[in-house]
Amino acid sequence: MTKVGFIGLGIMGRPMAINIINAGHEVIAFDVFPTAIEPVIEAGGTAAASCAEVASNSEIVITMVQDGPQAEAAIAGEGGALEGASPGDLIVDMSSIAPGVSQRIGEACEKASVGFIDAPVSGGEPFAISGDLAIMVGGKADLFERAKPMFDIVGKSSVLCGEVGAGNVTKLANQIVVGANIHGLAEALALATKAGVNPETVVDAIKGGLAGSNVMNAKGPMMYERNFTAGFRIELHQKDINNAMETARELGISLPVTSNLQQVLTSLVEKGYGKEDHSGILHYVEENTGVEVEKF
Ligand code: NAD
User: Fold this and answer.
1) Can you give the C-alpha Rg of the chain in angstroms?
2) What is the pLDDT of residues 214-249, one digit of tens each?
3) How far apart are CA 213 and CA 84, in angstroms?
């Protein structure tokens, strides 16, 4: 049995922490939003009063917060995990944040002789509940091996992608492919609808060919059935694409498709669609084309 600290018990962190408890480990939990930890306490976890208290009572600390500023505050900020951690402990940040921020957190951990790896996930709430997340890891191989028993509980795959930050680079690559795919699918279904072809039929006809993808299987029906209940929120995808563009700027490369996606997501958030599923990129296409996509 391992003593696992868990910081950030939101949509993703809550089921992940519960799966770790159900696998027989001890979980010490903290969230700045106190009611967030209640289901974890009901499942057998223990409450802590701060990130530092979590770290002083556990061997591995997992953080699952929204973005870089929250991850930095939870780990390296005042009252953060590093204040309670002992040399040799391990902190695993599973939030999706900018790779440069992961590296900064990694340096702060190294100064305190605490191990650090970044390990963002793909799969969303359903896979967090079923323990089937795909995990992309950055850091030293021995630290990856130490964290692997936890990854095997919360995920169905975990891949070491490189040094600290490489997990989040991989996650950004994932988010570019997914976002561009959704945007392309939305334009394809608007074209088909305007031309008088049922969008459901189009998806059925092409999903077995080269255009077929997990994105098409999951988001195509959401579009033509007009169900935009999140899933993965537009505002979170905007955050990831902002991080992708920030990283591209740091690296000095231009990414026009990603840059356009950033504009599309920003426009949708400004118009109040931020809490909808990212299949709601369709709204942007519909407002541009004047076409409403629905199966018939
Ligand atoms: P969420 O907003 O539901 O949960 C984040 C939690 O962290 C909140 O409860 C918040 O109170 C807590 N928190 C923030 N700062 C804290 C601090 N300093 N100390 C303690 N607790 C703190 O977000 P989520 O949907 O669970 O997403 C978490 C991360 O996982 C994000 O980076 C997101 O991009 C990523 N992700 C989400 C999904 C998804 O479908 N929701 C899928 C893949 C990856």
Assistant:
1) 20
2) 999 999 999 999 999 998 999 999 999 999 999 999
3) 45
Residue pointed to by tokens 């209640």: 38
DSSP state of 280: G
- Residue-wise pLDDT tens digits, 151-210: 999 999 999 999 999 999 999 999 999 999 999 999 999 999 999 999 999 999 999 999
- The gap from C-alpha 155 to its chain's centroid, in whole angstroms, comes to 13
CA dihedral 148, 129, 163, 147 (to 10 degrees): -20
Does residue 137 contact residue 143 with C-beta atoms inside 8 Å?
A: no
Phi and psi at 274, nearest 5°, equal: -60, -30
**Closest CA to ligand 1's atom 8:** 10
Furthest C-alpha separation in the chain: 65
User: How do residues 51-76 score in pLDDT, each as one tens digit?
Assistant: 999 999 999 999 999 999 999 999 99
**Do 216 and 189 touch, CB atoms closer than 8 A?**
no
Instruction: Give 280 Cα–ligand 1 centroid separation in angstroms.
Output: 21
Q: 111, 171, 271, 275: which one is catalytic?
A: 171
219 is catalytic: no
